[in-house]
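User: Predict the structure for this protein chain, please.
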Amino acid sequence: MSTIGVADGSAVTEVRQGVGVSPGSAYGPVVQVAAPVQPPQNEEAPADPAAASEAAIASFMHVAEDLEARSARADDTARDVLKATAMIARDRALHRAVTKHLGEGNGPATAINLAIDEFAAKFEALGGYFAERVTDLRDIGSRAMAHVLGRPAPGVPPFSVPSIILAEDLAPAETATLDRSLVLGIVTRAGGRTSHTAILAAQMGIPAVVQLPGATEIPAGTPISLDGDTGEVVLNPDPEVVTNQRLRRERRAAALAEVSGPGSTQDGHPIALLANIGGAKDAELAGAEDLEGVGLFRTEFVFLSAAHAPTLEEQTAIYSRVFAPFDGRRVVVRTLDAGADKPLAFANLGEEENPALGRRGLRLSQAKPELLETQLQALAAAARATGADVRVMAPMVATIAEARWFAERVRANGLPKAGVMIEVPAAALRSAQVLAEVDFGSLGTNDLAQYTMAADRMEGELSELLDPWQPGVLDVIAAAATGAKHAGKPLGVCGESAGDPLLALVLVGLGVTSLSMATSKIRGVRLALKTHTLEHCERLAAAALAAEDPEGARAAVRAAATPELVALL
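Assistant: Here is the predicted structure, written as structure tokens:
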């Protein structure tokens, strides 16, 4: 944090540095999200614990119904997240924990809070998908406590002036239902590069910064500016700063409007630009955009919100809706990415010591091959019905044998193109041999970074280690790209890195052949490619690899990129 002057004779201008997670800039007054509800101090025990238990459980059910009602008004990715959150609110084990704490002499709100703390600790210890849901879990608890205490639900307060939302973190229930006409930007003290806030903000095209020190202490109404690319936030910015930001935003919009068509470098080297989607609504929106198809269709949402394994007919109908907007264009489908860290009631393999390193992704498919078989049959039927160029890839592939096993099953079901996700360092280092068994590969840089750096991607204190600009992570990506070139197979990126215009140039310089990202980021990446030759991208990649740390890598690339692009970032 630094003080750089006085904006209006009384308000001190401060610059704070967070982590940019959704591109664009914004300026406006702060709206602070109300703090979560806490139980009253020394809350009295209920006279009738059984009746109190019924009331507490009814509060959770009220929260679940509210989340489900919100999901009906949300886009696909947001809707699926809200449905999954509602399932937590309906969880009977959570309800039993509340009843237990009531029986120990605690008041209703205290019992709810203790149960939430208990489950949050379990989720954090499990890591992976569970750790990613701790924010959701605490939001559920806060809403249930508010209901049982007869208080208003926590969250974003009503406001009518376009503003920037500030919060400790935003739960999906808040982010998914924000009024885009009033929300100029989002800033959180917590969160991460792959948090739901980051994903949904990028999907909605709202500039966002996470991990900003002291975000919740900024007084409501304070004018701030934010840069969702660099992560910089300025309190009480000088009018000149605001004007320059607005002019840059206008120049950027004009420049983005001038580039269109298939992705390629300035000298014509093709780089397919693709969208990441989570369902049919996402597909309809992406299908209307100027892009070459889908680089990542996450199918786990089809399963995570289901009480029973979806049937062949149910899956075929869903996939057909997703593929329909892409007749003649590619749709890369990731098969079920679940397991002990994304538990399914109908595919429970039992508890594991470390679920993030356990039987997830393809490992679950090998343990429950009937799930994969039905999914592949449905994907093949939907592909025939729609004419989309469907390509199917498996998550969490680590060995040559796993790649071969998957490819055999994909082709046996009449799907011509089988691929693998490269998100395990072993697969990256042996990519020539792994990709020899399939038709393509796709780098999942979020998981690849956490496994390479041995850092949980949801641990905010380790955000620097998880920075996709880490030279060590870039080394692993370079090894994977070299192996893909030797195997003569295309290698894409569908992780967070693909949507960063400067990092996209580095990835192309390393040998990546396609980039898949949130739809809102595609125009910026297209512009970056159009202003650099392939040889220039290769020089930028060499500069990033030569750096000692993420900051040095980013600075070196920024300094060597074209002034035309840098002026717009």
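Residues 1-9 have pLDDT under 50 and may be disordered.
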